[in-house]
Amino acid sequence: MPAPLRIGLAGLGTVGVGVIKIVQQHAEMIAMRAGRPITITAVSARDATRDRGVDLSGLAWEQYPVALARRDDVDVFVEVMGGHEGAAHDATVAALAAGKDVVTANKALLAHSGHTLAEQAEAAGRTIRFEAAVAGGIPIIKSLTEALAGNKVRRVMGVMNGTCNYILTRMEDAGLPYEMVFEEARALGYLEADPNLDVGGIDAAHKLSLLSSIAFGTRVAFDGVEMEGIGAISIDDIRRAGDMGYRIKLLGVAQMTGRGLEQRMTPCLVPCDSPLGQLAGGTNMVVVEGDSVGQIVLRGAGAGQGPTASAVMGDVIDLARGIRTPVFGIPADRLESAVPARSAAPAAWYLRMRLLDRPGALAKIATKLGDAGISINRMRQYSHADGDAPVLIVTHKATRDDIQVALDSFRQTGVLVGDPVALRIEEV
Ligand code: NAP
Ligand code: HSE
Predict the structure, then answer these.
(1) Averaged over 218-222, what is the pLDDT?
(2) Is 52 exposed, middle or buried (0-12, 13-18, 19+ CB in 10 A)?
């Protein structure tokens, strides 16, 4: 049997412990599949005294991830600490400088520094694998870089943050308001340490920017993602969308257009009976449209110990087999700079607002829509005993910019109460 591939594992939290479990439980099967044994030689975490629930005897302990990354008895540095700077960044740089391949689950790190790190890796004849960073256990990176490599990708989209999908599904199922379900998600441990990474759409936007790079051969352009979180979605929005046959999802869409790369991660309405509309709980779904293959839908656990560690191990096993593809599918020095473009494709829009209950109020709003060249498809004013009138409008197709013009002009009417909510109705 050839020499083992030796892992240095930085991070012994949810994912790191999952990696240890797989290596320990499936050692023989993995050795056969990889063509050589895979072992963990050394680990690092902040607290050396904590019981992690797995056997760490026989593994060297390094207090500093950078020192772990430089060890002579480490072939592959597995980074499962998290954070886009600090230890994760420094140790990844150190590992590449020391001639190691890197496997990471860290989408934040790659969204911020992916291109520089890819250049460093490839200059050294090494690679960075990151299957676990996007949609947890779903093998979307491998699908894009390998199985679908013969396709010109037209569009990539999906639900890539399980926590947001859990919150939106739970609001609908239990009829609970956002704030209450947010606290439930916190109690269940679903939220990132900084919850805004989840509910602000940032985590999902990190993931979308990585997929865009591979799909369109562009440098990672996280700054170019049009982003909006789910914090403004009310239980009424969910119910009203449902009345019209739609569900609200935090949906990522990336496509290359003649004007540049469109990337958006925003709450959208999708048909209830579509695969995306039926996606419940913390599950993720990624949809790829290629010129030859047509539409591919991948669905599975987007987070959790087993699914994420499964993805990490898939990458490690590929490295043990000697498979070393460019980080983002093509060599980093061939990736083009993405020209960011705001999405201009017209869509139907769901507009929800509250108006002063006075004569002519609705007419003023309808006039402003007409002035912006937007045609109303459906309109409804919900019953209200007194006070402000809840109004819902579904438009015919309009661009984001025209909708923005209309929303801005609503404020001049003097009848708008608070901020209106505008959600795109996505054709999927
Ligand atoms: P976690 O449970 O918080 O574990 C993080 C680990 O990193 C801990 O063991 C921590 O040590 C260690 N660590 C943090 N800073 C360190 C430092 N400066 N030096 C040494 N060790 C350090 O995180 P996780 O959920 O496993 O996530 C790890 C990575 O995977 C993140 O990038 C995350 O975004 C990504 N990811 C996670 C999931 C998931 O389902 N959890 C899914 C997809 C991707 P201590 O334990 O001693 O504090
Ligand atoms: N916070 C992320 C989610 C974890 O909810 O999907 C997996 O990346």
Answers:
(1) 98
(2) middle
User: DSSP string spanning 3-20?
Assistant: PPEEEEEE--SHHHHHHH
pTM confidence score: 0.95
The whole-angstrom separation of Cα 161 and Cα 179 is: 18
Q: How far apart are CA 371 and CA 339, in angstroms?
A: 31
Q: What are phi and psi of 341, to 5 degrees?
A: -130, 135
Out of 9, 20, 43, 46, mutate this one to test ligand 1's pocket (max ligand atoms within 8 Å of CB): namely: 46
Residue 256 phi, psi (nearest 5):
-95, 125
Task: Compute the distance from residue 353 Cα to the ligand 1 centre, in Å.
Answer: 41
Helix (H, G, I), strand (E, B) or coil at 306: helix
Burial class (CB in 10 A: 0-12, 13-18, 19+), 302: buried
> Which residues, 6 or more positions from 151, have their beta carbon under 8 angstroms from its beta carbon?
290, 291, 292, 293
Out of 207, 249, 364, 368, which one is annotated catalytic? Answer: 207
Q: How does pLDDT run across 322-341, given as a tens digit for each residue?
A: 999 999 999 999 999 999 99
**Mean pLDDT of all residues belonging to the chain:** 96
**What backbone phi and psi angles, to 5 degrees, belong to 64?**
-115, 125
Residue range 225-244, pLDDT digits in tens: 999 999 999 999 999 999 88
Q: What pLDDT digit, counting tens, does each position of 65-95 carry?
A: 999 999 999 999 999 999 999 999 999 999 9
Mean of pLDDT values over 123-142: 98
Query: Catalytic site residue 207?
Result: yes
Report the amino acid identity of residue 86.
G
Place of tokens 């898939």: 314
Tens-place pLDDT, residues 248-274: 999 999 999 999 999 999 999 999 999
Bridge partners of 102, per DSSP, are 77, 128
pLDDT for 385 beyond 80: no
Q: Among residues 392, 385, 379, which one has the least CA distance to residue 357?
A: 385
For β-strands 348-355 and 389-395, DSSP reports them as antiparallel
Q: Which of 186, 192, 197 to mutate to test the pocket of ligand 2 (most atoms within 8 A of CB)?
A: 192
Q: Strand, helix or coil at 152?
A: coil
Cα 219 to Cα 176: distance, rounded to the nearest angstrom: 41
The label of the residue with tokens 């801005």 reads 408
Helix (H) or strand (E) holding 226: strand 226-227
